[in-house]
Amino acid sequence: MTLVVMGATGKLGRVAVRSLIDRGIAPNEIVAVGRNESALQELADQGTTVARVDYSDTEGLRRALDGATAALLISGNEMGVRVEQHRNVIEASVAAGVGNLVYTSVPNARETSLFLAPDHKVTEEIIEKSGISATILRNNFYAEGFQADFTRARDTGLLANSAGEGRVATAPRAEFAEAAAVALAGREWDGKIYELGGDHAWTYAEFAATAAEVLGKPVRYQNLSPEQEAAAAHDAGVDEAIARRISVRNAGIREGAVDRITDDLSTLLGRPTTTLASTMRTWV
Ligand SMILES: NC(=O)c1ccc[n+]([C@@H]2O[C@H](COP(=O)([O-])OP(=O)(O)OC[C@H]3O[C@@H](n4cnc5c(N)ncnc54)[C@H](OP(=O)(O)O)[C@@H]3O)[C@@H](O)[C@H]2O)c1
User: Where's the NmrA-like domain (predicted)?
Assistant: First the structure.
């Protein structure tokens, strides 16, 4: 068996490789693909085969993917070019005879208005058209993306944004990584689409209440209009690109793009997902 992990040098990928090994996959059956030399060295030190390949390197991809039982494509992080990068990986996977391609997408990728979705929608369509057997893991937001809010709650006792009453079904990044390892290693998940997220979808009012409980101090949530949110970010001197990212993320939450609860993640993990309160306790 050969299992290829592309994006193995990133935060999700490193945990996915670790999870494969923890699940009993022999390290020499894992091919870890990435570019970062020191991260690749760490993966080699765990006994995996490593391949330093950029997604633009068609030949390198074909070599790394050759005859793989299954391969995991962790969506890239270079906005504007990643669809073409994904296309290269998909075409190389077909040419290399990969048995099943696992791809990390976003919730409800084909229909959602979520800001991040267009690249994922197109990638899912390219995968479908290619005819390759594929497993689509539509990951909800990583809980870690909300750690800054927890820190703000601790420092100021106030959370103010435009997410309103919207809900988000976060789970720790490591659990999405573990689910990816499970889907990569077992053939029973092949050819299916999974909507992965936490077992509970929380509102910011609940986030504030949970933070208050964990911190042992009052935390208040204040709902802002998108305009008030933009003005507050401007007044606080928040970098424009960061303010924009936060505002579109909050729009996704407010508009219900990430509120769906399924048991897909807990099914892949074989246990309930970690609660927000437990995750917050690791941030104290
Ligand atoms: N659901 C969420 O809340 C959420 C949040 C953030 C991101 N994401 C998505 O999930 C993905 C994984 O998250 P992460 O935290 O693991 O991100 P990350 O730490 O930035 O890892 C990205 C990985 O992609 C690899 N990569 C990017 N461009 C590449 C290229 N041109 N050629 C080869 N490898 C390339 C990187 O390789 P090198 O480091 O070796 O260059 C790295 O291994 C992100 O890329 C993003 O699409 C989701």
Answer: 2-250
From 12, 102, 176, give the residue whose CB has the most ligand 1 atoms within 8 Å, as the site to mutate: 12
Q: What is 144-168+199-259+270-281's CATH topology?
A: UDP-galactose 4-epimerase; domain 1 (3.90.25)
DSSP state of 74: P
Q: Please report the pLDDT score of residue 116 as a whole number.
A: 86
**Ligand 1 atom closest to 78 (CA):** 28
Q: What percentage of the chain carries pLDDT values higher than 90? A: 98
The sign one gets for the Cα dihedral 236, 239, 242, 247 is positive
- List, by residue range, all CATH 3.40.50.720 domains of the chain: 3-138+172-196
Is the domain spanning 3-138+172-196 CATH 1.10.760.10? The answer is no
pLDDT in tens, 200-257: 999 999 999 999 999 999 999 999 999 999 999 999 999 999 999 999 999 999 999 9
Q: Where are the alpha helices (DSSP H) in the chain?
A: 11-22, 37-45, 58-65, 82-95, 117-130, 147-156, 173-185, 204-215, 226-235, 240-254, 264-269, 276-281
| pLDDT tier for residue 166 given thresholds of 50, 70 and 90 | very high
The residues of the chain that CATH labels 3.90.25.10 are 144-168+199-259+270-281
Q: Which residues line ligand 1 at a C-beta cut-off of 6 Å? A: 7, 9-13, 34-36, 39, 54-55, 74-78, 85, 104, 139, 141-142, 145
Average pLDDT of span 65-85: 96
Distance between CA atoms of residues 117 and 109, nearest Å: 6
